[in-house]
Every structure is written in structure tokens, then in C-alpha cells.
Amino acid sequence: QVQLVESGGGLVQPGGSLRLSCTTSGFTFSAYSMSWYRRPPGKEREWVATTNSGEGDTDYYANSVKGRFTISRDNAKNTLYLQMNSLKPEDTAVYYCKASQHWGQGTQVTVSS
Fold first, then answer.
1. pLDDT score for 79
2. Dist. CA 44–CA 26, nearest whole Å
3. Where are the beta strands (DSSP E) in 1-113?
4. How far is 106 from 96, CA to CA, in rounded Å?
5. Under 8 Å between Cβ of 95 and 36
6. Is the dihedral of CA 67, 108, 33, 26 positive or negative?
7. Closest CA to 41 of 82, 89, 102
8. 50 FRET partner, CA 20 to 30 A, in 6, 31, 98, 110?
9. How buried is 82 (Cβ within 10 angstroms: 0-12 exposed, 13-18 middle, 19+ buried)?
10. Neighbour count for residue 74 (Cβ, 10 Å)
């Protein structure tokens, strides 16, 4: 049974940082491209970043987060990460990880003073 569990969300001030984690099980994590998405309040879910399965492959970012967010993975721990720096109020959203057609339950990130 595929499981993806996000954690690390919370309330942070503008300019602050958070690191999200997505712990996975039930599939061969190292073989899959992994992505982060987010759903801002009142909006549709949007893609944030993708990391492919091959070592050294390029990571991909939405323009809105490029240069501020970093996606990474630890294949030994079956875990995906999203380091978020220089956070802005518009980054407020529920953040989800995705593997193939499988989604986690999401973790709330709120950026506010």
C-alpha cells in the first residue's frame, strides 16, 4: 500500500524558512520522480517542484519559487524534502507530495506576521 506523509508545515514570518518532509512507503521510492504541489486558499492546486529519479538529473521549479525553494530526496530514507527560504505570504498553502498518481494528505504552511 502506497503511503505518503507530509510533515514540517507551520506558521512562519515573512522572510523565514521551513523544511517540509514527505515520508513514503509501499513503492520503490528511488525509481520514481517525486513532486511537490500546493493549494493556496481559495485556489486550485499548483505544481511547485519536481525531482527525477536519476542521480544528477535536473530539478524543476515553478517560476514563483525558483531561487527560494530547493527540492531534494534521500533514497536511503525514502523521503522527499522541500527547503523553503525567503518565504512570502503568497506561499501560504497546503503543500502536498506526489508520486505517480499517489498523493499525501498535505501539510499547512502559513506565512504571516
1. 97
2. 28
3. 3-7, 10-12, 18-25, 34-39, 46-51, 60-61, 69-74, 79-84, 93-99, 102-103, 107-111
4. 4
5. yes
6. positive
7. 89
8. 110
9. buried
10. 12
- State the cell numbers at 96: 502536498
Most distant CA atoms of the chain, gap in Å: 40
Q: What residues does 46 pair with on adjacent strands?
A: 38
- The answer to whether 112 and 45 have CB atoms below 8 angstroms apart is no
pLDDT along the chain (113 residues), means of 10: 97 98 96 96 97 81 98 95 98 97 97 97
The whole-angstrom distance between residue 79's C-alpha and the CA centroid of its chain comes to 11
